[in-house]
Amino acid sequence: MLGQLVQGGHGVNPSRNEHTIAVSCEVSGRGYWSGKEVRVIIHPASLGTGVRLIRSDLPAIPVCEGLVSRRYDANLRTNLAHGEATFQMVEHLMAALYALEIDNCICEIDAEELPSLDGSSFEFVEQLSNAGLIVQAAPRKRLVIRDRLRIGTMDGWIEAVPSRAGESYFEYQLSFDDQTPIAPQAFGVELTPNRFMREVAPARTFVTKAQADQIRGAGLASHVTNQDLLVIGSDGPVDNEYRFRNECARHKTLDLIGDLALAGVDLIGRFTSFRGGHNLNGQLAAHLAEMAAQESHGTKSSFVKQPKAA
Ligand SMILES: [Zn+2]
């Protein structure tokens, strides 16, 4: 058995009930890729709703669960779809909801892509914190990692191992090749709402100057300036400054948390990614979701513990 589904919470307090927000809150901006103006209104929701995203701009007002079963592969971001309706770049919102322990809410979105904001989760966290939490009348389900699980290759992998004291720990080890201006760096955090707010949420999306030139050369993201994310050249960020010495590893940790949140349960264990990206995160989230489903149905997990190719 690789995991066990139990009731409780993540972080230093191992037991908690489900939460929603006390009042609706709102964040708006433009999408990185689409450039479209978009407004996200996050509403409280009843027990057992989970995170649901709805497209208020479409006639049918389609609904999509914030779960890995709705995920599809996309370059440099995490997208969800239900039927024709897509919900693009959801990871920074999902990370904020997961870390702040907001289990039930309806996110009303009026375009296909979520707002890029400053490239971080900070504004989501700020608005959600201001909205306040309501404790609901049932315990939050969680998946406790009992055995080591690793997926990927030697060049990039992601691993889940049991935690020593019931903590939820997320770590990213960044090591790009010699041609990039981003130095090897790492960041890890025992996740609590406060630590996420202070140490992870402000870390911004980044690209190298070469990647930015390539994207702009292809006529994409022409509205995105060097202040809307970190564009990293040989002398560091172009027209910008790091918020943290290891801001890139912190942002990758943010993405890891947001992508694994799609498993739909609290995760008790130590999760480490070495050079992984959204695709590998999505594969692990799918494993974790299946483990949680098997545990809740009382069937034995069938996952192999050996590394496998990505
Ligand atoms: Zn990101």
Characterize the structure shown.
- The protein has 310 residues and is an alpha+beta fold.
- The chain has six helices and 20 strands.
- Strands 1, 12, 13, 14, 15, 16 and 20 form a seven-stranded mixed sheet that branches.
- A hairpin with a 6-residue loop joins strand 7 (71-72) and strand 8 (79-82).
- Helix 1 (91-99) packs across helix 5 (247-260) and helix 5 packs parallel to helix 6.
- The model is unreliable at 301-310 (pLDDT under 50).
- The structure holds zinc ion.
In short:
With 310 residues, the chain is α+β, with helices and mostly antiparallel strands. Helix content is 22%, strand content 32%.
Uncertain residue segments:
301-310
Order of helices and strands: EEEEEEEEEHEHEEEEEEHEHEEHEH
Q: Over all CA atoms, what is the radius of gyration? A: 19 Å
Hetero compounds: zinc ion
Main sheet overview: 7 strands, mixed
Oligomer: single chain
Structural category: alpha+beta
- Determine the mean pLDDT: 91
Task: Give the end-to-end Cα distance, rounded to a whole number of Å.
Answer: 23 Å
The proportion of residues in beta strands is: 25-35%
Morphology: globular
Which terms summarize this structure?
five-stranded mixed β-sheet; single chain; alpha+beta; binds zinc ion; 310 residues; disordered C terminus; seven-stranded mixed β-sheet; 6 helices
Set down the secondary structure blueprint.
Layout: E1 3-7, E2 17-21, E3 25-30, E4 37-44, E5 51-55, E6 63-65, E7 71-72, E8 79-82, E9 85-87, H1 91-99, E10 105-109, H2 122-131, E11 133-139, E12 141-145, E13 149-153, E14 156-161, E15 168-174, E16 185-190, H3 193-200, E17 206-208, H4 209-217, E18 230-233, E19 236-237, H5 247-260, E20 266-274, H6 278-296
Parallel strand pairs: 5-10, 12-20, 15-20, 17-18
Antiparallel strand pairs: 1-12, 2-11, 3-4, 4-10, 5-6, 7-8, 8-9, 13-14, 14-20, 15-16, 18-19
Bound molecules: zinc ion.
Residues 91-92, 205, 251, 255 line the site of zinc ion.
